Amino acid sequence: MTKPRIYTMSFASVYPLYIQKAERKERTKEEVDQIVFWLTGYDEAGLADQIERNTDFETFFTEAPMLNPNVGLIKGVVCGVRVEEIEEPLMQKIRYLDKLIDELSKGKKMEKILRMEK
Fold it and tell me: Which Pfam families does the annotation name (predicted)?
């Protein structure tokens, strides 16, 4: 069975699209980075290294320092699929990131996006 195309896509090629999506809605690159850091455990240097090395999504998430323990609080639909029901772990992580970026572009407060508010 072949891997979904997203797994082999370069994170560095999609990252600017996340930023563009956020900026179109008056949000910032810094907020996108904060979401990536929260979800994956990367810091600025780690994220820059992943981008510089042009790693694919599979490597990006495999090498992530630590998935946030609150990812289970991320719920909702992205690309027509409920993220909490995705069974393939890598696809679920990718869709978690998509969902958080969607929430940012829809104007949610960072506290809600990062699951800090109940």
Answer: DUF2200
DSSP 3: P
Residue 32: C-alpha distances to residues 1, 48, 80, 83 (Å):
33, 13, 22, 19
Structure-block tokens of residue 53:
């090395």
- CATH code, 5-111: 1.10.8.290
- pLDDT tens, 69-85? 999 999 999 989 999 99
CA pair distance 69, 55, nearest whole angstrom: 24
CA separation, residue 18 to residues 1, 38, 102 (Å)? 29, 15, 9
pLDDT at site 11 = 97
- Retrieve residue 47's tokens: 């994220």
100: phi then psi, degrees, rounded to nearest 5: -65, -40
pLDDT lower than 50: segments of the chain: none
Regarding pTM above 0.90, the answer is yes
